[in-house]
Amino acid sequence: MRFYIATYRNAFRRSYTLSGKQLAKFLLYSIGVFALLMGLYLLAWQVVIYTPMVDYLTAPGVMQFSIYAVHFFQFIVLLPVVILLMKMVTTYFCRK
Which of 67, 70, 86, 85 is nearest to 27 (CA)? Predict the structure, then answer.
């Protein structure tokens, strides 16, 4: 997990690049983090279901919030992967 956090933070630094194998490893960690975030999100909904607050929720509101939450998690997890991939590709083409 320390590798993921360090790589996530370094993805936004200009001179930091990864090899293909490191990028694949980071992508697998990103998939795991996305699954963890979705699990925590579903756990939070289970807590909300058993509280009186569920009486004030509507189905369209829940669906819209769920869509926004999934998109937010995807953005947070995949943004560094895309940045690192672009850096890797530009580094590859600039060296030739």
Answer: 85
pLDDT tens-place string over residues 28-72: 999 999 999 999 999 999 998 899 988 888 989 999 999 999 999
DSSP-derived 3-state class of residue 17: coil
- The percent helix, strand, coil of the chain (3-state, each to 5) is 85, 0, 15
Report CA Rg, the chain: 18
Spatial separation of the C-alpha atoms in residues 78 and 74, rounded to whole Å:
6
Cβ(7)–Cβ(26) under 8 Å?
A: yes
pLDDT at 1 over 90: no
- C-beta of residue 8 within 8 angstroms of C-beta of residue 80: yes
User: Beta strands of 1-96 (E only): which ranges?
Assistant: none
Please tell me whether residue 71 adopts helix, strand or coil conformation: helix
Closest CA to 31 of 86, 83, 73, 87: 73
